[in-house]
Amino acid sequence: MKRIARGEKEALGTLYDRYGRLAYSVAVHFVRDPSVAEEIVQDVFVTIWTKAGVYDPAKAGVSTWMLRITRNRAIDQLRKLKSRKDVAVGSTVDVIQSTNALAVNGEDPESMAFREWDRERVVEAVDSLPEHQREALMLAYFRDLTHREIAEQLNEPLGTVKSRIRMGLQKLRKILETEEALE
Amino acid sequence: MSHLLPAYATGGLDEVESLHVRRHLRTCTSCRRLAAQYQSAFDAVGLMVPIVEPPARLRDRILSDLPHQPPYRLPSSIRFMLDHPKSVIAAGITVLLLFTASVWINISGLTPRPTRLAAASAHAVRLDPTKISGAILSVLNGTAAAPRARAIITVGSDDTQAVLYAFGLPKPPEGHVYQLWLMKGGMHRSGGIIRVTPEGHAIHYIQTSEPISEFASFGITLEPASGSQDPTGSKILENETLEAGSLQDREISESPNMQTSLYGIVPE
To answer: Given an 8 Å threshold on Cβ–Cβ distance, is B73 in contact with A53?
Structure first.
């Protein structure tokens, strides 16, 4: 990030090689439109390029910071398009299988292995949650629904949904709180 | 307070609750750290997404279309301060002593008077709505003149564009309009005339050449139909502003100019 802050394009290219696929996948998952997803990813990396100087590693790892920017941009596009596309929450098993099929072109084995460990750890952590907590948490993330909207969709009391999201996130935080940023 | 942080991270709090949490996070280090952990954990859920290979051209497209200006760097003055803290402290003590002496000698004339900035040029500009991320900068509450009115200002990703959403505004009297004001350092700047629907709603786009988050407060007053150079009418909405550092993706601008351009849109 320091190299990017100094204006080194090659450093941004390296960052793209490491996280570009993930950013694109998140964008596609939200907007379901490859061309729009490309624009989102471009916007994300331009944002990283312009804000690398104020990036604070104490607040978030590079991957989570990038994910946050990507999700925000994707949600902006969704709202701009005035449509809420159905995003299949999917089963955790499908996600794990897709993850294991990750392409390896252009990746050095060490960073690939570490990133797989991150994802695997997150997948394991989410998979360890009770089903209701996992479902509520993923709806909150991937469908940009308010807690009230989630409750309506699940036909559950609002308080129940809030508790599930809170407990799910508390458990996830405990598992991930010692995870080091890749940079 | 810690029991609210998971909901805060997932966007599950309403405006009032979010504002309450943000105020608390300004002063509580432990909660701020905990909030960051919850936010990171929520962000990490994105790693669950099935991986899709992007087009090969995307990498070159990104790297070939970067802004030409260099990315943000600390001003040389701030870099100097970070590199020479002892010199800065000594200079600061000297300045403080001199200031104290001058106050003791001559008290009158030190009270800053509110001054009017150059009038904003009110011309429409093309704003990029995708840059309006929705992070709430400020909440405005109605005064006695409009007790049911309420407004929020959400800031854009680059902190120079924002959107004001207003609700419950009474219809302005004939020959009058609502006007937005941005204030800091004893100075005020017009944020433009706000057009209100018959239902009392308004969406008003704001663009400035410096970070909106640096303005200390915002307000809406009732002014003559052509607008005013200074706030002259009764106050309709007023607020307190969230701490600038609480915003996500905040960019620090070095531009000294304070020119506001206006583009008002009334919702359908």
So the answer is: yes
Q: Within the 151-190 window of chain B, which residues sit less than 8 Å (CB to CB) from chain A?
A: 157-158
Interface confidence, given as ipTM, is 0.75
What is the secondary structure of A56-68 as a DSSP string?
-TTT--HHHHHHH
- As a whole-number percent, the residues of chain A with pLDDT over 90 amount to 25
Examine the pLDDT at A90 and tell me if it is beyond 50: no
pLDDT of residue A110: 42
Chain A interface includes B232 (CB < 8 A): no
Please name the residue of chain A whose CA is at the shortest distance from the CA of residue B35. A59
pLDDT at B71 over 90: no
Q: What does each C-alpha distance from B154 to B107, B131, B242 come to in angstroms?
A: 41, 11, 11
Strand order of the sheet with strand B150-156?
Answer: B115-116, B187-194, B176-184, B217-224, B235-241, B132-142, B150-156, B161-167, B202-207, B261-265
Q: Which residue has the higher pLDDT, A44 or A88?
A: A44
Beta carbons within 8 Å of A181's beta carbon, 6+ residues apart: A57, A60, A61, A62, A63, A64
| Section B31-59 average pLDDT | 88
Write down the pLDDT at residue B17: 85
A95 with B65: Cβ contact below 8 A: no
What pLDDT, on the 0 to 100 scale, is given for residue B65? 84
* Among B9, B234, B236, residue whose Cα is nearest residue B142: B236
- How far is the first Cα of chain B from the last one, in angstroms, to the nearest whole number? 39
The whole-number pLDDT of residue B68 equals 67
Tell whether B55 lies on the interface with A, counting CB pairs under 8 A.
yes
Tell me the one-letter amino acid at A95: V
What is the arithmetic mean of pLDDT over B131-154?
Answer: 74
Provide the mean pLDDT of chain A.
76
Q: Which two tokens stand for residue A6?
A: 């100094």
Find the CB nearest B46 among A26, A103, A146. Answer: A26
Which alpha helices (H) appear in A55-146, and where do they start and end? 62-81, 92-100, 109-128, 131-142
| Residue B210 distance to chain A (closest CA, Å) | 16
Structural domains present in chain A: 1-87 (1.10.1740.10), 90-183 (1.10.10.10)
Query: What is the H or E stretch that residue B71 is in?
Result: none
Q: How close does chain B come to A183, measured CA to CA in Å? A: 15
More confident site: A38 or B259: A38
* DSSP type of residue A52: G
Q: Coil, strand, or helix at residue B141?
A: strand
